[in-house]
Specification:
The structure is a single chain. With 308 residues, the chain is an all-alpha fold. It has helices at residues 3-33, 47-56, 63-75, 90-125, 130-144, 147-161, 176-202, 205-212, 217-229, 231-245, 249-254, 260-269, 273-301. The chain contains 13 helices and no strands. α1 runs antiparallel to α3 (63-75), α6 (147-161) crosses α7 and α10 packs antiparallel against α13 (273-301).
Length: 308
């Protein structure tokens, strides 16, 4: 690894730290601006009890003091304890829910990348033919359809009507529909991205030279063109993986799955300040790191790319 690469990584890590600090700041003050409090319930609580709870969790301090204290703790990954889950650290809650989102997200990401590249390459090979038009129409329609519509449609068809798959539960079968639902939109985007970049590469001079030598079109695609045409997919794959690992919030709610997305929604509803802010910071950090990893992989796949 040369000095230019090291400088780029250090620069991106500094930018990542700045990004996390901005997210911490915005999230903290946004939560404070929401009316009500974490201990408000439908049944009235004695004001003295609320006062003791605020003192216990440090919510009786001035907001700026609370902010500075939280900022210092966030820098060492200490997000405190949950206000709603008794005697439970925020990082423990994240650790309990992350494996579910991780398994679902990585499976969906792998499915989206593999199928997307295959369909995109096929569409490029069959340019302006029936297969190309069919793939493009289906991918456009799927991208335009919101995930909650797809999730609801799959639930109605495969669970309620056909009874093939159970909704909810810990069995691997219960994760088939969520994985397909989460992967569908990025899969279609990768399909279109791969098709476009492959068509550009197929028009390059070195491809024409290979064609003039009698090399088959499929050999040209997989041996010569695919390595260059897949680089835009790698750039997109980093933030895509980070996004879907966290789990689609709506999809996890519809399919009644455990995960970070569902945990995040519940923490907002409960006004669990530490849990909301801790989850937000963690997801932001994950996104920034995955973008950095995708940039480095882009350089490895295509050494001609300059980090400048």
């Amino acid at each position: 690894m040369n000095s230019k690469t090291m400088f780029y990584i250090v620069k991106r890590l500094i930018l990542a730290l700045v990004t996390v600090l901005v997210v911490v700041t915005v999230t903290f003050w946004a939560m404070q601006a929401i009316p009500g409090g974490p201990f408000n319930q439908e049944k009235a609580i004695d004001p003295s009890v609320i006062e003791q709870l605020n003192k216990l969790y440090g919510l009786d301090q001035p907001l700026f003091i609370q902010y500075l204290r939280y900022l210092g703790n966030a820098l060492v990954w200490n997000f405190g304890v949950s206000l709603k889950v008794k005697n439970t650290l925020i990082m423990d809650l994240i650790g309990q829910n992350l494996p579910y989102s991780l398994a679902t997200g990585l499976s969906a990401a792998a499915l989206a990348i593999i199928i997307g590249i295959i369909l995109g390459s096929t569409a490029a090979l069959k340019h302006n033919k029936a297969a190309d038009r069919t793939i493009m129409v289906l991918s456009t329609a799927s991208v335009a359809m919101p995930s909650f519509v797809i999730a609801t449609l799959f639930t109605w068809l495969f669970a309620d009507t056909l009874g093939l798959i159970q909704i909810g539960g810990d069995s691997w079968v219960c994760y088939i529909l969520p994985i397909v639902t989460i992967s569908l939109s990025p899969m279609c985007y990768i399909t279109r991205l791969t098709r476009s970049s492959t068509l550009d590469v197929l028009g390059a001079d070195y491809i024409r030279t290979a064609q003039a030598k009698g090399v088959s079109r499929k050999r040209i695609l997989f041996k010569h063109a695919l390595r260059n045409s897949v680089t835009p997919v790698i750039t997109y794959a980093g933030p895509m993986i980070a996004y879907i690992i966290t789990g689609s919030i709506v999809v996890e709610q519809i399919f009644n799955l455990k995960g970070l997305g569902r945990m995040f929604v519940n923490s907002i509803s409960a006004r669990d300040y530490p849990q909301v802010m801790g989850t937000t910071v963690f997801l932001t950090f994950l996104m920034v790191i995955m973008v950095l990893v995708s940039d480095i992989l882009y350089k490895i796949v295509n050494p001609r790319v300059d980090f400048d």
